[in-house]
Amino acid sequence: MGFFTAYIVLSILGLFSHYFYVYKGKRAENRAWVSYYGMIVVGLTLIFGILMYLDVLSFILDILNKIPWIQADPFQNGADYMWNSFRLIGINPNVVPEPQLHYIAALLFLTYTPTYLFAKMVSQGFFGRYIHEGGYVWGFLPRKEGEDNI
Predict the structure, then answer these.
(1) CA–CA distance, 53 with 47 (Å, rounded to integer)
(2) Which of 67, 70, 13, 87 is nearest to 43 (CA)?
(3) In the chain, where are the structural domains located?
């Protein structure tokens, strides 16, 4: 996952966190489940991103460079992959990793947690924060049997 694909993945997993909490029965069993889920999701994404940026996981690049449309312009190192990860789907922004981009990369890594928390807060509003709240999802759910037709 590159920088921008990591934001997409973190946002989607943040939105699903409260869905699992409310609708899959985790609320009554373990109230700290959402915290553990968040720490695991953000931690694994952050560790993978940092190790990839520092070129520790360079064996993944050898596998990715065998994809036919990547062979014309292969990934040089982990930083090149992190900045140009959209090459995997055919979009080539062609960002050249310069030493000045290391500072921006550090800021992007630091914003992984706020991105996840923002998506989690949106999810709380959508699915309801407390047991007695239905959230905004009630407008999309089918009506229950015996409800008044108003």
Answers:
(1) 10
(2) 13
(3) 3-139
